[in-house]
Amino acid sequence: MTLPPFMIDDAVMRALAEDLGQAGDITSAACIPADAMSRAALSSRRAGVIAGVDLALAAFRLVDKDIETKVVNGDGARVDDGDIVMRVEGPSRGILTAERVALNFLGRLSGVATQTALYVDAVAGTHAKIACTRKTTPGLRAFEKYAVRCGGGSNHRFGLYDAVMIKDNHIVAAGGIAEAMRASKAAVGHMTAIEIEVETLEQLEEALEHGARIILLDNMSLDDLSLAAALNKGRAVLEASGGVTLDSVAAIARTGVDVISSGAITHSAPCLDLGLDFID
């Protein structure tokens, strides 16, 4: 599980520019001597799963190359309240200047990883995978989808460009399931996956008849999801989606679907509470 360094540096540089503006960290410059040195611990203040360590490291590195960091709990690690994520040592001004950007990235992505892990744990013992959606923070999709992987989940398509996903409005505009499937197969290459969304068992049967290999079962009841799995007989990958919550996900997994996608693991994930404290 890695992120390209150029993506990390670009995102962190933009975040630092937003925070520092044209005058820099005027508070630290005003009250802390330029030669002051400090040690700090960046810790979790509640239990969770860590994600985004490389972005936090980049924040300290890009602010001041003399800041030294040591990771104690890296991406994917499960931490408890009070566990240290990383130790930081170096120029006091630089540490404080980088602090908020580092914590913003780390807290946001660790929140997504933590929320994902809750869903993954809930379906343990079934063969269902938890997947994210495109309901991500604009500009942070690659990072949030990375955090989903850190939490044990799987990634759905990254955007409109890397897979065909025929939804209800596409079906209406195309003139039906058969027409939408035929046109999509003719339009894309053999390496491009095609998924089609259905809302009824009748639509499922039609999609299977036209060779659908990935089918999204939208907002179906538990009974219909079970019937869909029986009807499918392993022919297509079945994805359950729509209204999935932490309370309902285990029951959905027991119906026999292969994938359960949830927008909540990204768009509604609370940030993991993390803090940086100087050590005397």
Describe the structure in your own words:
With 280 residues, the protein is of the alpha/beta class. The protein folds into two domains: 120 residues, Alpha-Beta Complex (Aldehyde Oxidoreductase, domain 3), CATH 3.90.1170.20; 147 residues, TIM Barrel (Alpha-Beta Barrel). 43% of the residues lie in helices and 19% in strands. It has eleven helices and twelve strands. Helix 8 runs parallel beside helix 9. The model has no long low-confidence stretch (mean pLDDT 97).
Strand content: 15-25%
What structural category characterises the helix and strand content?
alpha/beta
* Largest sheet geometry: 6 strands, parallel
Widest sheet, order of strands: 6-11-10-9-8-7
Going by CATH, the homologous superfamily of the largest domain would be: Aldolase class I
What is the CATH domain class of the largest domain? Alpha Beta
Radius of gyration: 23 Å
Q: What sequence of helices (H) and strands (E) makes up the elements?
A: HHEEHEEEHEHEHHEHEHEHEHE
What's the total count of β strands? 12
Enumerate the spans where pLDDT stays under 50 for 5 or more consecutive residues.
Answer: none
Q: What's the rounded overall pLDDT mean?
A: 97
Helix amount: 40-55%
